[in-house]
């Protein structure tokens, strides 16, 4: 009987040891998996996909993470739980040019500069296409104050034609080559009629009107700065009409694959509370029905516009470097927008 108990106890001990070994192996595998994930995340921070860097940087006035207030630059990435994967933002200076009447009256208030910067930073942080892979370097663009100037001119306070607009944009005393230049005028009438703003593609100058406080509309200013950074209207069709099934999004329309095909004459009866009801009568060249994004900043859907698609962000990242308006942060300074 004693021998039988001894054998039974040995079996229990062996079973216990095997079970413990399985638990240890399982835990070890979990720890290895966690460690591998941590390593991948760390490498994503240390070695993100890089865009070409400009040959020379301009020092920025302010550099910090909007969410945490932590100062950031190209080698100082905030590694908190909220932004562990976020690469250092691309920083762009904005030069504000106030156009007033000859007697110095009219135009935007100087305090509006901060509102415009806040609006830009808010809109440019919105990604419409969903979650961006943490292993892809889609940098956040942040805008900082690059200074301001004032021009008193009755002729340029209200822009009535293209010649006056050209005169404003070529004013050497106002223009800064390494910044986004925003010209705040009372009204803007060009060849295509009255406009809330105007900007060329990959041109670091944007004109915004102050009539009815249009310059304080986040969607208006962000739309024009989107043009500055190389984006076209979502309904662009002079290179070919975009198929609603995304099949030719790289080569037609706005040349951005993840912005739904759009047209500039959607019936307003199909738009209610910034929701578009699909109309089968409006089909694209490939037979699919249009279902445009009313939220995209580069559309013409007014206050419905709130942000950019992921690929639009990627294009602007690269174009900011090409345009030469990126700047390097002063890593020792901190401020708040």
Automatic annotation (TrEMBL):
Gene3D superfamilies: Collagenase (Catalytic Domain) (3.40.390.10). Residues 1-28 form the signal peptide. Keywords: Signal. This is Pregnancy-associated plasma protein-A. It comes from Kordia aestuariivivens.
């Amino acid at each position: 009987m004693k021998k039988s108990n001894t054998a039974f106890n040995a079996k229990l001990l062996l079973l216990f040891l095997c079970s413990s070994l399985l638990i240890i192996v399982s835990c070890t595998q979990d720890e290895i998996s966690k460690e591998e994930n941590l390593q991948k995340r760390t490498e994503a921070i240390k070695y993100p996909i890089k865009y070409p860097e400009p040959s020379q940087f301009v020092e920025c006035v302010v550099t910090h993470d909007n969410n945490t207030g932590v100062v950031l630059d190209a080698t100082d990435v905030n590694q908190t739980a909220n932004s562990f994967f976020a690469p250092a933002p691309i920083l762009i200076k904005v030069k504000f040019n106030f156009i007033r009447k000859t007697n110095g009256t009219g135009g935007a208030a100087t305090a509006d500069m901060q509102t415009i910067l806040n609006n830009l930073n808010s809109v440019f942080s919105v990604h419409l296409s969903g979650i961006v892979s943490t292993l892809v370097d889609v940098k956040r663009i942040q805008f900082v104050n690059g200074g301001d100037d004032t021009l008193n001119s009755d002729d340029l306070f209200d822009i009535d034609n293209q010649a006056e607009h050209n005169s404003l944009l070529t004013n050497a005393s106002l223009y800064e080559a390494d910044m986004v230049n925003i010209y705040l005028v009372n009204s803007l009438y060009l060849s295509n009629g009255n406009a809330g703003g105007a900007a060329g593609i990959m041109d670091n100058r944007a004109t915004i009107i102050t009539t009815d406080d249009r310059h304080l509309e986040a969607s208006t200013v962000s739309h024009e700065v989107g043009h500055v950074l190389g984006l076209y209207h979502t309904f662009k069709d002079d290179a070919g009409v975009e198929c609603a099934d995304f099949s030719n999004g790289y080569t037609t329309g706005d040349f951005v694959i993840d912005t739904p095909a759009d047209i500039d004459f959607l019936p307003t009866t199909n738009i209610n509370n910034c929701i578009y009801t699909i109309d089968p009568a409006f089909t694209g060249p490939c037979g699919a029905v249009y279902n445009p994004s009313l939220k995209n900043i580069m559309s013409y859907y007014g206050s419905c516009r709130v942000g950019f698609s992921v690929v639009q962000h990627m294009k602007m990242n690269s174009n900011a470097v090409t345009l030469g308006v990126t700047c390097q942060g002063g890593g020792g300074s901190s401020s708040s927008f």
